[in-house]
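assembly run, all chains below
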Amino acid sequence: MFLAKRVSPNIISVVSFITLIIFLPLLLLAAYQTARILTRATGTRARITINTRTHLEPIHTDFYHAFAQGGEESVDMLAPVLSHVKNLSPQYIRIDHIYDHYDVVGKVHNSLMFNWGKLDETVETIRASGATPVFSLSYMPGVIAKDGQVTNAPDNWEDWALVVQKTIEHYSGKSGKNIPGVYYEVWNEPDLEQFGKWSLRGDKNYLTLYRYAASGANSVTGVNRFFLGGPATTGLYKNWVIALVESGERLDFLSWHSYYPDPTRFASDQRNVVSWLMPYPQYTLIPKLITEFGFSGAKDTRYGSSYAAAYTASVVRQLISGSPTLLFSFQLKDGPDQESGDGWGIITHEANGAQPKPRYQVYEFLDAMKGTRLALTGEGTWVTGFASVRDNTIRVLLVNFDQNGNHVETVPITFENLPSGTYTYHERLLLGRDVTSQETVSDTTLTKQVYMPAQSVAVLELTKQ
Amino acid sequence: MAIPVVVFIAKQRQELRKKAAPATTLSFLPAQVTKNVGDTFSLEVHIETAGNQVVAAELHVSFDPTVLSVQTITNGPLFPNILASGTTGQGTAGITVGATNTMSPVSGSGTAAVITFQAAAKTSSPVLVKFDSTTFVGALGEGSTNVLVGTTNATVTIQDSGLSVGALSDEISPTPTTTPYLIATPTITPGPLATESGEASPSALAILSPKEGENVVTEQPAIYGKAPPNSTVTLTIYSNPITTTIIADSSGNWTYTPVDPLPAGPHDVVASIQDPSTGNTLTSTTSFVVPAIGGLGGGGSESAIPTAGNTYSTLLFLIIGSLLLVFGLLAPVVIR
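ok done. output:
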């Protein structure tokens, strides 16, 4: 009443509206913070037990020695960091932009001409690192693309088929580069606006793009064994997978990208894709490739911290049993102008010192776990792990990964069913402490307390003397 | 002329019948198990393909979680590929296993998977371990058909652990086959040896204060506990590790107060002693939270689990937001 007598209703409405505009973001922020606190406050601490007598399946460590390099520069990006790349023991290295960055395809008198020189340099660098190349057949060569746009369909689909055929013959051909076991992936993230926004219908139908690529692949002669597949989507999408399977075209492998902050999504994706393929027995066993992965598709300074290392180890833990055929870390090297440290690279750009970041160290660290998997129970919300045995040494990998914060934890670790005797216990953290002690076991168990700092990875080794 | 034609047609029909005849069955080995509470035992998932050319099997098993807990599930020798990792939950277990490749499908009988259980509680009557209806077996030449036509459940009886394990094991029939991927787990004898004997019992070493997850009211909280009389207790406070040793008194009491204030946030404490009889290290742990300066003495309710975000700013925002909401609701009424 007091307000009504002095101020007109219109002014009150305007003031209320402005107040609402100012404070609404604060309210939303409060709601967000509340949600974060509520979700973060719940979780289970790990209490790890390893049954050293229960042997499970063999552990493979090759699948994560795969790396992708994006096309932030149209040059041989890996040459300046080749020695660092070699040390990662890469099995496969994937590159994209092969047609729009390397001037491969030209046109003379309405005939396609191929110049592999520039792309060959990059491939030679990949080979020099010890890896086999994986080609993302992308994007459309400008000379055959509609309107010259490299994310468009071609004016003539037969030209696209010929480009694919010539690519395979050049790299897999016995009279070409003669490289066995090359994967050729049709396009890169076709569902993304940036790369053409292809779909499963209409003018820009990925199935048409794939069909002509398969046609080209089926026309090759005199080649080593190679693999053709896709759809290389930004995520694992059932409709894309099933559409490709039901297309009836040659399909040697399935691929997709995974940018999930939650590592457990990787295991559920594996279960899902295999379950979807169960009614298609011819395709259930074909290789599955995650041709790019990370915790975020956006550039992020955490890619330069121990966060990325712990994330990678946590993903490997999720996939250590029932893994995809290959898991490609994105990416090997930062692009230029990444001085702020937010590049995706495992190694900084040469303009920024060509220095390995913390994630660089994790792959070799994980390799120690090769062996026969042992039964491990008691993983928690943040600390997860797996165990193995090889050459009379029991190993436990522990990862403390907190996707939203900086959780720390002291984890009780119990080794069960140990023969009595004296053991050497070796505890080492990635880029951290390294301690060794002697332990006596007289009653079949040994318990240790392991402090896991935020975003940390540890390997515990127990060897009977 | 007619004979070869008839033979050819008959073979074609046989082939068609084979392709159109899902015939795979699944069962457990052993089919009946009697165990003591606390025992660990394995069940093999046995597959009989009956002519189907099996490439993969998606196995889903369920059981009563009040009497059984699943520890592990892995593939058997007949299926060298784990296509999707094993999952273990409350009353469920699952795994998807596959042949080496489509050129070498699985045909015949053998072990598809191995599940390890622990007997958790006594049963009044045998309980079932059964295959769920979502279990799917895919085979070449059978299209999208689930070629699984039958399953046989297992029954498990769990008894009190009063009887000797050796006497009970004679009742298991048939004996599980040892596979290259599974080394049989020895049965754990119930009793003291089955506990985590590497850890200290409360009477040997214990931290009495702070309690697990406690919000202390000072930056220099007293940490005290019990240990064997006159023993040397090594105390480590994380996360910037502070390590010190304390001698327990003749009654086994020990106490330590940090010399310098501890930073705000969660802290883990590990107390350890050397067991003179075995040489083992016995440990006890606790965690506590030192609230931020403004929060000391307030007896907050934060748990020891670190939280993201800022509680105080959040509360402020919530109060402001609530006031605005009230203002928004009341203003039109007041103005009228």
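Chain A is about 25% helix and 30% strand.

Chain A touches chain B through 74 residues (CB under 8 Å).

not gonna interpret more than that til we talk
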